[in-house]
Amino acid sequence: MVRLVLILGDQLTETIPALAQADRTTDIVVMAEVADEAGYVPHHPKKIAFIFAAMRKFAARLQDDGWQVCYTRLDDPETTGSIVGELLRRADETGAAEVLATEPGEWRLISALEDCPIPVHQFPDDRFLCSHAEFADWAEGRKELRMEWFYRQMRRKTSLLMNGDQPVGGKWNFDHDNRKPAPNAVTASGPMQFTPDATVEAVLDLVAEGFDKNFGTLRPFWFATDRDQAQQALAHFIRDALPKFGDYQDAMLTNDKFLYHAVISMYLNAGLLGWREVCDAAIQAYDAGNAPLNAVEGFIRQIIGWREYMRGIYFCEGPDYTRRNSLNHHAKLPDFYWTADTDMACVAKAVEQTRDEAYAHHIQRLMVTGNFALLAGVDPHQVHEWYLAVYADAYEWVEAPNVIGMSQFADGGIVGSKPYISGGNYINKMSDYCKGCAYSVGDKTGDKSCPFNSLYWAFLDRHRDRFAKNPRMAQMYRTWDKMGDKRQAYLDRAAYLLNRLASGQRI
Ligand code: FAD
Ligand code: DLZ
Ligand code: SF4
């Protein structure tokens, strides 16, 4: 009996369970560029191009390996425009009566496959270190689901950087050696860039024509689009940037988009790289004396800690997670998230970089665009849809817990024990943005005062009932209360800024 084998755009791994369960002599692989997936949020053109180009190259590789592949291009005149529609069309063409699939990374698609009129077997996605069941076991009965405890379990499970049951270097976490302010000069050369080949060029033409209204610059396009290139990009990062990854993990620079970051999340999330090879490469650099412990521990914590933890939260919390709004925030996402048209240099830079590269590093996402949206009381669902659209690495399983949980505190404190908020001082300490800003970071309430300053205190004041008893925030409230009569000036300035935002005026 013929079966279809569904491979989605972020399942481009040769050992993916649906393929491992299939028989290449009789089963038929289905891959489809479809309008529904390309349009459920207005994805950045670079993200769409990356996925389509990587899908086409992966399909070609499967064919070389003897698989029969039914591949739908976006402009196929026969296309139904959806994944389920394409499965049904291919089933009709081939006489297949069932589908082998790997569980998708978004609830939306999981339920679409469950509702498919022909049976679809969704196998667990084993490309992750922690299964849903293992995460649920870990979470069971815990009052707080803190990443640090989860991470220790993953270190023990993998034996990465372990001496028996003890962490190498005597500590689990070397972050106190990390998080240095921005350096004057960055010695790393940035991510490895690839010249588009004929396959990529054809996709770029298609995307240029079909998605010209979407936010984001398509060309120049330099991403890796196959496994071999992604491995080269990983090796380049390990050599060039990993040694200082820890030191400058939280720094931001106007003229350096990537600093010492790996820029591999889009490759990992699409399946071109796996967590194990990425961690092994970092450990090898440590063993060879090429990268220090603070960098290597910090890096593997992101992969086997944060990344796995976020996925665990997404699947544990269920499909309503992206609708959570624990702080009752309802403001509209400001237009400058799409235009960069703001006098705030930090926000303008983060949005411009996002537009040009479909990439911003963690602190730009968390402490600039995320921080501002939270302080301004923006509806978290709108914030979530923005992040899901604009980054090349964004799929709901990883984006939503980072945005709804870590960044917007909309899950009420599952991911974070307190909201990630700051005034301008933090941004000034970690970046060079403030030097070139129309606002003054040192000014708290004047006409040119940095918006983050007053919005920060107004946020705390607005949410006093919610946070005053949080031990990690008590000091902030004591400081606020000591300000006495000065507080009104902060609240007035914040109200002025929020009014301008609400009426679509520039800030
Ligand atoms: P590096 O800083 O070099 O880190 C190495 C790797 O660690 C990354 O490639 C990534 O795979 C992993 N990693 C680091 N932090 C996280 C994290 N918090 N969650 C999951 N993995 C992590 N990451 C995504 O992959 N997709 C998203 O859609 C996404 N949305 C985010 C939204 C917000 C508001 C925030 C604060 C963070 C988000 N992140 C997301 C996490 C992080 O910002 C990106 O993984 C990172 O910036 C990717 O760039 P890099 O490869 O240079 O990462
Ligand atoms: C993100 C994306 C895009 C833009 N386009 C496609 C597509 O045309 N075909 C496809 O199979 N996958 C695509 N993807 C990735 C899917 O949206 C992703 O598999 C789900 O969101 C689950 O993570
Ligand atoms: Fe951002 Fe404020 Fe600094 Fe301007 S002064 S760059 S708005 S933190």
Would you mind describing this structure in some detail?
- The protein has 507 residues and is mainly α.
- The protein folds into three domains: 4-123, HUPs (Rossmann fold, 3-Layer(aba) Sandwich), CATH 3.40.50.620; 132-190 and 241-316, Alpha Horseshoe (Serine Threonine Protein Phosphatase 5, Tetratricopeptide repeat), CATH 1.25.40.80; 336-502, DNA Cyclobutane Dipyrimidine Photolyase, subunit A, domain 3, CATH 1.10.579.
- Helix content is 48%, strand content 5%.
- It has 22 helices and seven strands.
- It has helices at residues 17-20, 35-39, 45-64, 83-94, 107-114, 132-139, 147-158, 198-210, 227-240, 265-270, 275-287, 293-317, 336-339, 345-357, 362-375, 380-390, 396-407, 424-430, 451-462, 464-467, 474-482, 487-502; strands at 3-6, 28-32, 68-72, 98-102, 120-123, 162-163, 166-167.
- The strands form two sheets. The chain has a five-stranded parallel beta sheet, with helices on both faces.
- Strand 6 and strand 7 (166-167) form a beta hairpin.
- The longest helix has 25 residues, at 293-317.
- The chain is globular.
- 48% of the residues are buried.
- The mean pLDDT is 97.
- The protein binds flavin-adenine dinucleotide, ligand DLZ and iron/sulfur cluster.
- Residues 344-346, 424, 427-428, 433-434, 437, 439, 441, 450-452 line the site of iron/sulfur cluster (SF4).
- Residues 261-265, 268-269, 302-303, 306-307, 310, 361-362, 365-366, 370, 387, 391, 393-394, 398-399, 402-403, 406-407 line the site of flavin-adenine dinucleotide (FAD).
